[in-house]
Amino acid sequence: MAMQHTTAGAPDTVQPSAKPLEVPVRSYWQRNENWLLGTISMSLFLIFWELVVAFGWVNPLFTSSPSRIVSAASDMFADGSIYEHIAVSAHEFAVGYGLAIVIGVPLGILMGWYSRVNAVLEPFVSALYATPRIALLPLILIWLGIGIASKIAIVFLGAVFPILVNTITGVRTVEADFIKVARSFGCSDRQLFLTVALPSSVPFLLAGLRLGLGHALVGIVVGEMYGATKGLGFLIATAGARFQTDQVMVGIILIASAGVAMTELLRLIERRFERWRPNLRG
């Protein structure tokens, strides 16, 4: 008869249950602190601006006021006079900025990856990058006339060099350890470029797109102030000549709003590509 071994009298050991991690509850202010601080500061500034004009401390001919700007904008949108200016400027920006991306990104990759291509093109890029684009405006008007082609060229020249230079920098500053690891696994030059160099340069490329965006918007205003008949830059120039400060501010705010919206879009894309980076700020 088989004997059964028991551990009679031994106390049962109970493992303590793991205590669930308590996630701190963040208040509405903590979740939206940056947005709320920006909104409050902007609201206080607009209130102060309105009051100094209302009390006569500042002549509205020089600064206008938020209420006057809103009234002027509503009139311009109501009669439809603003839409044509917006359409012309949007077309110039889309074509010029698009060409800057199409040409600047591939050319920057080639110059950053191939030293001989860089040696051939770098003197031209450095010279044109250091030259103020407004200094080229008379030549552009002579070559392309006062039509929309010259405005697109000015937007293109303003945007392409920040994109080009940042792309070159991004390709050149690939981590040496990444290249060593890729080489140790027998990567070819093509695989090294596609899997290491190009992804590593994306943050620089997106930063160049953001810088080029600002230069492109400046190019719109500069180009349309000379020899144009339509566009937001033309609107700002003609309204300023007539001391219509309200309309000047409407044009400025429209351009600034477009710039802020597109910059935020590029920042969202940039954060999407940088999710893998560790948070070193604590």
How would you sum up this structure in a few lines?
By secondary structure, this protein is mostly helical.
Count of distinct strands? 0
Mean of residue pLDDT values: 82
**Fraction of helical residues:** over 70%
Tell me the strand percentage band. Answer: under 5%
Span from first to last CA?
68 Å
CATH architecture identity:
Orthogonal Bundle
By CATH, the topology is MetI-like fold
Question: What does this 3D model show about the protein?
Answer:
Residues 1-10 have low confidence and may be disordered. The protein is flat. The N and C termini lie far apart (68 Å). The protein is 74% helix and 0% strand. It has 13 helices and no strands. It has helices spanning 28-31, 33-54, 60-63, 66-79, 81-113, 115-130, 137-144, 148-172, 176-184, 189-200, 202-224, 232-241, 245-273. The chain has a single domain, classed as Orthogonal Bundle (MetI-like fold), CATH 1.10.3720.10. The longest helix is centred in the middle third of the chain and has 33 residues, at 81-113.
List the keywords:
282 residues, mainly alpha, MetI-like fold, 13 helices, 74% helix, disordered N terminus
Task: Note the topology.
Elements lengths: L27 H4 L1 H22 L5 H4 L2 H14 L1 H33 L1 H16 L6 H8 L3 H25 L3 H9 L4 H12 L1 H23 L7 H10 L3 H29 L9
Helix pairs in contact: 4-13, 5-6, 5-8, 5-11, 5-12, 7-8, 8-11, 11-12, 11-13, 12-13
